[in-house]
């Protein structure tokens, strides 16, 4: 590995992760060139779900804060 010859130039942990990823892909026959569309939208969906959850929580607390006489 170039990390041992030139320490500080590469991230040893990330490099090892990539080596293991490629070996796993080769062993399982998975192509790293193909990317699923749902995996590219994963982070976006987490953000949307978080915002929706926050809006729901605020709405629930607001409704509970309304006095019974007003409901």
Question: Can you lay out the helices and strands and say which pair or pack?
Answer:
Layout: H1 2-5, H2 12-28, H3 37-40, H4 42-65
Q: What can you see in these coordinates?
A:
The chain is mainly alpha-helical and 71 residues long. It folds into two domains: 1-33, no CATH class; 35-71. It has helices at 2-5, 12-28, 37-40, 42-65. It starts with a helix and ends in a 6-residue tail after the last helix. The mean pLDDT is 75.
Quick overview of this protein structure:
The protein has 71 residues and is an all-alpha fold. Helices cover 69% and strands 0% of the residues.
Q: What number of domains?
A: 2
Terminal CA distance: 69 Å
Number of strands: 0
Q: How many whole angstroms does the radius of gyration measure?
A: 24 Å
